[in-house]
Design a protein that fits this description.
The complex is a heterodimer of chains A (580) and B (117). With 580 residues, chain A is mainly α. Helices cover 67% and strands 5% of the residues of chain A. Chain A has a 4-stranded antiparallel β-sheet. A 3-stranded antiparallel β-sheet of chain A has the order 5-2-7. With 117 residues, chain B is mostly helical. Chain B starts with a helix and ends with a helix. Classes of the chains: A mainly alpha (580), B mainly alpha (117).
Chain lengths: 580, 117
Amino acid sequence: MTALLAVGAVTLGTLGLGAWGVRFVRTTSDLLVASRSVTAWWNAAAISGEYLSAASFLGIAGLEMQVGVSALWQALGFTAGYLALLLFVAAPLRRFGSYTIPDFAEARLRSPALRMLAAGVVLLIGGFYLVPQLKGAGLALNVVSDAPYWVGVVIVGAIVAVNVAIGGMRGITYVQAFQFWVKVFAISVPACLLVIHFGGLPGRAALFGRQLPRAPARGLVVKLTGSQRVEFPEAGSFSVGGRTVHVRAGAHVTLPAGHVSLPPGGIVPVADGITAERGDQWSRPVGGSGDSSPLFVYSLLIATFLGTMGLPHILVRFYTNPDGHAARHTTVRVLMLLGLFYAFPSVYGALGRTLVPQLYVTGQTDDVVLRLPQAAWPGTVGTLLGALTAAGAFAAFLSTSSGLLVSMAGTISHDVWPRLRKDRPTNVSLRRARFRVAAVVAVILPVLLALVARSVDISILVGWAFAIAASTFCPMFLLGIWWTGLSARGAAAGMVCGMVLATAAIFTGLALGEPTGGAGAALLAQPAVISVPVAFLVMVIVSLRDPVRIDASAEMLALHAPEGLGLRVAEEELAVPQTA
Amino acid sequence: MSPGERDRRAGERRAGLRSPRQELAESTEHGEVYLRLLRRAQLQLSLLALVAFGAVFGVLPVALDLLPELRHSTVIGVPVAIWIVILPLSPLFIAIGWLYARRADALDAAFRELVEK
């Protein structure tokens, strides 16, 4: 109940602030005006606030509990992505003055057709990224109120759509900055108290030794909402309704719905799709096969390192920086703030392995951040801290999914709709009405996908969004900003190749089902290590062979000349106004 | 550009009458050379920072894979390999980012000086 109240407070607070803030932020030019008074620290907190999603708040700890310490590479990659953004993109893109990725594609390469392609990719990435946010919402609501999974997904999808449609969250730097600190507080306070409470990490043998996770000394009762197929990695037993069943090592059994109890110290069975690991396997950062094989780790690092710059909701945040110099220094501060946040999720994954091993049975390791406080302190303290992590999780997916939906709805109403209807309305209220319809339309497909993707881990889903972004927009940005020879045809060919390769691998992996291990499975699960170089190569080769050459010197001047020299076209002239 | 215009510019250039600012604003070949030099310098700096980062971050997974003893020796009960993944990398990103931003600003400042002199 307490947790439900906390979640309600965060949601209402976000909606309220959004509705209140929208009176101040009518158009993107207001955003530009407002930018003069926003410092680099505020901007950095706002960027981090919009960036830290369900994947960061719930997914990393969940994946760490499930596959082991190798999950922490993902957190490192999420941070390192901002280093790539800083080194190659932040200042030039701010100077260029495009608000969205389709704007950049059209303005840099002078091709309206490329704008449409970029718009399509924005929708694809946004959709892929929205699914895990909604999945997180469904899980969180299920944990705090016992509502079925689909209720949370649908309710939060509706809240986010309404929030975006009434104009909430758009360009409101202070709200996003506030959300960042809510998330840091919500993840760090319980983590520190947990470590202090246990005086370190309990259950070392199952963490770093040669033990498998076992039920605690008082036994373990697992509540199953449906029947669940599990594997016993060693011989063990379970009892249902007073009847005890002994199981051989390596045997698969189907546990019935209801309360299943495991004896004190008994082996914890793992749900299908999870591989049981001994402590020394679990604590290995790299090695073996599957999610900790070196190939998978490298592919994931490439996807996150290069994919961050291609996320549609991040780019627009950089325009609250007054100039390229400020964009650089804001990004350095983002690195610091993300480094602070990502110090904490790893604590939950490690403690969860010992304290809530029932999540291995249910397969819902993504719940670990939400369930851990109550498992550690069964009384009021646990309830309060559980409410805190639930509120933080809600803040995480409300801010990220609102940002994503704003980009997607903007792309639909601004880029796709005029193209289909062959008109470009100047009427502000008509544009706003289209934006609202687009916000509602754009959320429907991700909600449906989230309903069927319950068993796929949040972190895996997010990894795909990064893989597609790294295989499409990253090469377009890097080559478009630093190479005069990129042609529109080359950019289009490279983006299509990268997108097709990455999505094909992901869906093939999904269709084949259970990962079988080996290099092939690692590449299907995270294709970036192949698809990114291919996208770069295709872009370069097609551009070099393209007979149509454009003179990019004006664009290069806009991208690279420092401000304040009177050389640059005024920002207001380059910027394409966006609907609000 | 007519040949006469070009000759006039060349004459002014020899007499030291044309500033880099004019060259850039009129986007002449000389202006483009100034800008290309800035772009090259910035790109070299970014690539240098990338190499510094990649040397550590790129080698680390392989190093951890090939050196199993890092997993067996522990500090405060936690294997060294885990400490290596958790602790030093974020400060490294921040340090590289901070140094890069300083140098990139310095390159911009040098360009500004050239144009404004």
